[in-house]
Write a structure and sequence with these properties.
Length: 116
């Protein structure tokens, strides 16, 4: 059943993603917000070897960290970023919470329409 935090369609898409990419899906999932949440459950149900999961999860996490550390270093040294850093942080926070806020609003409006 669907709820604010769980949608069956997301789980089904993740299952298809894991079927297509196999073990590599654990690495790739680190870069895909919704898929990242469900991949450990899907590969667990598929009985992926725990050590194999840990190795691929470590590899994905390591790549994620290296990429974003590099991007942070590069962009953090740009004069325009240094000058407007507080606004940049505020923008990142707003972009990060926007999907959750929109999902809650959408759910609220759907329930309200259903009651009418």
């Amino acid at each position: 059943e669907n709820s604010i935090f769980f949608k069956k369609s997301n789980l089904e898409k993740t299952h298809q993603f894991c079927e297509k990419y196999g073990s590599l899906s654990v690495v790739l999932a680190r870069f895909l917000p919704i898929v990242r949440t469900f991949v450990p459950f899907v590969v667990g149900v598929g009985r992926m070897d725990y050590r194999k999961f840990l190795a691929f999860s470590f590899l994905g996490s390591f790549c994620w960290i290296q990429i974003f550390l590099g991007l942070g270093h590069y962009f953090g040294n740009l004069p325009s970023v240094k000058k407007n850093f507080p606004f940049l942080i505020l923008g990142i926070i707003l972009i990060s919470v926007a999907p959750t806020g929109l999902a809650i609003l959408k759910n609220y409006l759907q329930r309200r329409r259903a009651q009418s």
